[in-house]
């Protein structure tokens, strides 16, 4: 058996394909041991075997449906108990298509449970463990629709806005404890999520679709630069800085004891 990696173990959710599998490949090349989590155990095992043979890292696969309480608890507990885990990548997620008025309640519930509830609970478990040890990192995969919700489905966009907000707050809470936090906001990326959500990729503008390898490489470059927010397709980082500055400008006037003059009724 190979010795434990000096980088520790990366726990990756949604690791059987797409963004998660690509993160696994890139991190294995960097020397991380891997704990791959997804529902499709067969695909996980095939990926794990290939990466172990190619890179020599230790790979464990854990079949789990994070929308199911028992499975979610298993992964949570692993994050709390396994001191070798040094990196959590919250990648698992689903999308839905169509307007909110026509939404399927069961599908909406599944999306919220996976994109929000599971991500929050795993982030909490990792924050507690990493913070206590004074090291570790959490990467949350969000989406650019967190910034432009009108571009896509209401529930999916709202779930990714939640991920962005959660990550920003986690950074505020954890940075002093030595824990790095990053939110990755991809644009349209060529993965299976579109087919699964009922969207025909042929109807998407090819100029807007990024290959998954390019997206993950950019995200990891941002991680190496210790970016809090990484938007892989954004050419000018100053645009994001100005957005953050504009948000900060609102701060002093978001809570006062009296309404603004423009809301006062004459007489």
TrEMBL record:
Record PROSITE patterns: ADH_SHORT (PS00061)
Keywords: Oxidoreductase
Record-annotated Ketoreductase domain positions: 8-148
Family assignment from sequence similarity: Belongs to the short-chain dehydrogenases/reductases (SDR) family.
PANTHER family: ALCOHOL DEHYDROGENASE
Name of this protein: SDR family oxidoreductase
Species of origin: Zestomonas insulae
Lineage: Bacteria, Pseudomonadati, Pseudomonadota, Gammaproteobacteria, Pseudomonadales
């Amino acid at each position: 058996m190979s010795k434990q990696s000096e980088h520790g173990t990366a726990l990756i959710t949604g690791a059987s394909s797409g963004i998660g599998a690509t993160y696994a490949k890139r991190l294995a090349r960097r020397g991380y041991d891997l704990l791959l989590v997804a529902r499709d155990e067969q695909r996980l095992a095939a990926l794990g075997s290939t990466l172990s043979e190619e890179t020599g890292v230790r790979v464990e696969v854990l079949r789990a449906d994070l929308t199911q309480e028992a499975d979610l608890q298993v992964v949570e507990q692993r994050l709390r108990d396994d001191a070798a885990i040094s990196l959590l990548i919250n990648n698992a997620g689903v999308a839905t298509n169509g307007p909110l008025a026509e939404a399927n309640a069961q599908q909406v519930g599944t999306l919220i449970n996976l994109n929000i509830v599971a991500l929050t609970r795993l982030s909490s478990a990792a924050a507690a463990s990493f913070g206590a040890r004074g090291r570790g990192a959490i990467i949350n995969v969000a989406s650019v629709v967190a910034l432009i919700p009108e571009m896509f489905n209401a529930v999916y966009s709202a779930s990714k806005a939640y991920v962005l907000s959660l990550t920003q707050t986690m950074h505020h809470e954890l940075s002093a404890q030595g824990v790095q936090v990053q939110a990755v906001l991809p644009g349209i990326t060529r993965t299976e999520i579109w087919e699964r959500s009922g969207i025909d990729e042929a109807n998407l503008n090819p100029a807007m679709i990024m290959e998954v390898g390019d997206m993950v490489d950019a995200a990891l470059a941002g991680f190496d630069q210790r970016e809090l927010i990484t938007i892989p397709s954004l050419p000018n980082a100053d645009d994001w800085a100005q957005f953050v500055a504009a948000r900060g400008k609102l701060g002093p006037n978001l809570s006062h004891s009296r309404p603004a003059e423009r809301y006062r009724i004459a007489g």
